[in-house]
């Protein structure tokens, strides 16, 4: 086990939900003196309702991810309750592709609470290419009920609430509307120590071609296991997969369990005590990440503890700092960070942009989401911008993809949405208006996620009204 140096955590008997409080001369719960500028660089884009995902037991669907699958000429979106839906490019048809919670698959999705459920999925780049090694294969990342099966990764403590599993599914005919295949193959299984922020995103690097070293490698966002403050000290521990971005070859077999491959160029391959699967480490809750198609930059939205929400550039082998650092600041506790020497450790990869819950534009409870790097597409206002947002209040932001900011709020700019009447609104306002039309109580939050489609079309997802909206060029 690699040595894991820790800093003392001081117990502060004060609510982290208060207004700005300075605990001493060098600590605070609001380290950002400059709030996000809501006027400079403001971008207005048009948005229309594209399609509605079916309710689940009378509740709005909880979509997490929407992607284009060019080999089959349709988009797919998942619902945390267990379903993946087909969506035609024109939005005129939504059909269930598979429900992984169907008893016949032997998987009991653990979707209780806001953060657990069917987290993510990814189609192998060969999915629609008959005769290729990855033909028909796709992967799911799911919280499931602890069924007593052996696990590959133990956290070494905690309440041991449930398991999170990556499965490989193999469709015999990907062009059909419904999944035609057998029960899935299990690649890896995590024993989760706590019930919150356990999993993140699955994705293949989307810009590789057959023969490239990146082709067919699967990236996995794995959170620190939950609770608060990383109590089991997992994120900086290179012997643990928690609090990391992992990188594997799902068609390989040189892992410890023989169910997947570990690329030989992963940064910690061969390092004593370290997991070869690790691509980068020191993350709290890397729910979303995405690549720049121009230069390959990998950006990650990492949800903070109580103080710093951040978007970071993630280099291979990079240490993002958690839980020694929360963003640009030394982490002290859930209620304070140290502000005397920000960004003072040259070994840490600090955020490109960051913000806090007490920013005037925020609604106190915050959680960063994203990421989409908009380099081409129908919406000229978004060109050459890195798009991200706050999943709770639904605010949508951007920063410049070519001149990257150096932390803090200064490089963050706001995006507002014009509805079909031409009025500028926030995403939450659009959802609340839709809720009233649906006969539902207006939602207090959005649970924003991004989706992508053919020809670089860009979509907004949420868990409150079941509607997927498309950002379009000016009407």
Short summary:
The chain has 475 residues and is mainly β.
Question: Would you write up a description of this structure?
Answer:
The protein has one helix and 29 strands. The protein has one domain (about 25-470): 6 Propeller (Neuraminidase). About 50% of the residues are buried. The radius of gyration is 21 Å and the shape is globular. By secondary structure, it is mostly beta strands.
What's the rounded overall pLDDT mean?
94
Tell me the quaternary state: single chain
CATH topology: Neuraminidase
Number of domains: 1
- Topology pattern, helix = H, strand = E: EEEEEEEEEEEEEEEEEEEEEEEEEEHEEE
CATH superfamily: TolB, C-terminal domain
The biggest beta sheet, please? 9 strands, mixed
Which SSEs are present, and which pair or pack?
Layout: E1 27-28, E2 43-52, E3 63-69, E4 74-79, E5 83-87, E6 94-99, E7 118-123, E8 137-144, E9 162-170, E10 185-192, E11 199-204, E12 218-222, E13 244-248, E14 278-281, E15 288-291, E16 298-302, E17 309-313, E18 325-326, E19 329-333, E20 336-338, E21 353-355, E22 368-374, E23 385-390, E24 396-400, E25 413-418, E26 424-425, H1 427-438, E27 449-452, E28 458-461, E29 467-472
Parallel strand pairs: 2-25
Antiparallel strand pairs: 1-20, 2-29, 3-4, 4-5, 5-6, 7-8, 8-9, 9-10, 11-12, 12-13, 13-14, 15-16, 16-17, 17-21, 18-19, 19-20, 22-23, 23-24, 24-25, 25-26, 27-28, 28-29
